[in-house]
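Just scan my protein:

. . .
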Amino acid sequence: MASNSRGLRMGSQVALEFSKLRHRHLVAVCIAMVAFVLLWFGSQGAKQVVRSDDYRTVLYSLPQINAVILPLLSTVVASTVCDIENRTNKWKELLTIERADSLFCAKWLTCAILLAATVTGEVAATTALGVMLGFDPVPLGEAAVLWASTLGVCLFVSTVVEAICFFANNQFLPVATGIVLSFLGLFSLYLPPAVSMFVPSAYFGLLSTVSMTYDAASGSIIWGSVPWPLWRFLLVAVITAAAFLLSLRVSSRKEL
């Protein structure tokens, strides 16, 4: 009974967080990001399908653009959700009626829902666009792996950024974090795996199940499949959980 009551209360808190976002256009930003990815993939895919209609082109292309776009979007989502109280200096007033750890959880769930919806829309729309362009359909299992990998990295970034937002007095540091991660994501795909493993935004590519080899002699691309690096996904999940629990513990002691 008590657990049901806590669940209902948390649901109410999450609903309240969404109501605060009504005039912040965050959903529109997420939709615009998906639209940008579709435009980019539509432009690139129309050229690539002439060479090969292998569905792995889709699975290879998305992590490349995601490594640049999604760290910044995850930062924008987390910082916007937390910026409401920072902007109006409402933390002290709010913490007199709400526990800090409950507030942290509600904001984390709000970010998770927004990012899950965005990633779902991106993966579904891009795979559908791939079929329209002439690529083979992406198998459901591989699309699910792409979805889980993408969302996992997004949650990792947003968890760290939310923790920064919760304890920083301004939004400069969180936004700067997102910009740096996006910049690193641009180059991380060209770094050796042993180096890129230390770059959070590189995991969009490190969790890929596709290999690509360019045959200079024939000018063709040879696609291949590799096993999903589950241990890397679990590493991301463990680090995310550790960051969440540490932030939750510290936030529960947040002073008024």
In short: The first helix runs from residue 2 to 20. The two ends are 31 Å apart (CA to CA). The mean pLDDT is 85. DSSP finds ten helices and two strands in the chain.
